[in-house]
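Quick one, T. Sequence first:
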Amino acid sequence: MRLKRGFTLIELLVVIAIIAILAAILFPVLAAARGSARKTACLSNLKQIGTAARLYLQDYDETLLPPMYLRTGATTRYTGVFYTSRWTAWPELLQPYAASIDIFTCPARPDVPYKGYCINSNSSGEVFPGAPTPPGNWVEGGATGCYSPTTAEIVAESSTIWFYDSTPNILFTRSPSWDELETTGKKSPNSTTLLNIDGSRLMAQILRNAGARADTSAIIKDPWRHDQGMNIAWCDGHAAFARPSQIKEQSWNIEQMAQPAE
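Structure tokens:
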């Protein structure tokens, strides 16, 4: 007669421990791979957005598109998708040149469809007089004084930011310090996933006073949504990933100048 022998309790525990160790090793690797795939897909989106914006330039005498303007004509099928129906936002202007509406959704932020990216513009919708002029300005129904520059005015297209990772949910109307931002994040953790510093002056000044701390902050998670960095479409149409500390202050304006204080 054969004696059938099962596993002992210790053997089962050893097997379970081995599986747990392997899972602990593999899960972070798989998560990193998924994050890398989202980062690559996001970069592809911004590349397509930059290409669409360059095509827009050809039809509008090399004039940079505004972030948005008051709707003066008929509505379209995308009215109200990107912003309120009262306004025509920049993704709607680019839609005729884009392969799909899905390129405006960042793979890392599916919770905010069609609002995954921002155009480098004046903060809080104000038209700041004089230099520096960002690449794009607010146009309110063709009102005088609302100016959009041309590509001829850009000092260095390849190092001037045009579109970037962000979400239009929280808008600062002044330049807070990095310490203030982290304090806000600690008081309201949910806000850190929605953080947006829209515009040229504010973003430039915040990065300037943050220094290298912006590369490793665990509090401010957006727009540093991809491996503590962000994807950028530059004014010459190319797209590239950058760490916060790699972004030069002058890259936020077409004159390549340091940003003045608010």
